[in-house]
Design goal:
With about 230 residues, this protein is mainly β. The protein has one domain: Exo-inulinase, domain 1 (Jelly Rolls, Sandwich). The protein has two helices and 13 strands. Strands 1, 3, 4, 6, 9, 10, 11 and 13 form an eight-stranded antiparallel sheet that branches. A five-stranded antiparallel sheet has the order 2-5-12-7-8, with no helix packed on it.
Length: about 230
């Protein structure tokens, strides 16, 4: 039995080390119930403007278009969460944010959007729900209609990021391949406000949530995180 337990511990250690350099293929959303809460119920571990963000009955939402950030910086992690859109929602989960005063070009945003809204349905595919915003479109739209809860699992292992939305892996990206600030590897245009190539960004930073962008609410719950180190 002792030999078996030692072998298992070695296997787990090697697996975590491997994940630090490579996004492990996801086949299902994780059982994250016992993981660390990304944000404390009283938001004591968050950076945000008072009166904008709050939890009510376990649901986090914002009254204004302002982000909330973790005080802690993360690298090599799995973030599991649920979100619910209103009609026309446009929000996002932000990772690797290294400059909170100028976060847009200094982070990676995983897009949340109401793809059923004509406005967002007609937008570039790199603006659709589950995209790495402005850089990599999702393989398909799997977001649910407004008013229904969605589940998203984001795996960040160095420059490799994968996004699972409602039990399907919709986006995978290796930031090292994005060496231009104007063109994606497939030749499509990058929005001009994303003025730093992904390949130049650090792969450690704050995690953020975008607030009531465009005047439309977004709702989050069950925000859980697990380190891969």
């Amino acid at each position: 039995m002792r030999t078996t337990l030692v072998s298992l511990a070695v296997w787990l250690t090697l697996t975590v080390v491997a994940w630090a350099g490579e996004v492990a293929p996801a086949t299902a959303h994780p059982d994250s119930a016992a993981w660390e809460n990304l944000l404390a119920p009283d938001l004591s571990n968050a950076i945000y403007r008072k009166g904008v963000w709050s939890f009510k009955e376990g649901v986090l939402t914002a009254t204004k278009d302002q982000c909330i950030w973790t005080k802690k910086q993360y690298e090599n992690f799995i973030l599991d969460l649920e979100f619910k859109n209103d009609p026309g929602t446009n929000s996002g989960v932000i990772v690797y944010a290294s400059n909170l005063e100028n976060w847009i070009p200094n982070s990676v945003e995983i897009q949340i959007a109401d793809d059923f809204s004509p406005r967002w349905a007609r937008s570039p595919k790199t603006w659709h729900c589950g995209a790495v915003f402005g850089h990599q479109a999702p393989k398909k739209s799997t977001v649910k209609k407004p008013g229904e809860w969605n589940r998203m699992t984001i795996t960040c292992a160095g420059p490799k990021i994968s996004v699972m939305l409602n039990a399907e892996v919709v986006t995978e990206i290796d930031m090292k391949n994005w060496t231009s600030a104007t063109k994606n590897p497939d030749g499509s245009e990058i929005p001009p406000w994303l003025s730093r190539p992904l390949a130049e960004l650090p792969t450690k930073g704050h995690i953020g949530l975008q607030g009531k962008h465009g005047g439309v609410p977004i709702y989050f719950r069950n925000l859980k995180i697990k380190s891969l180190e």
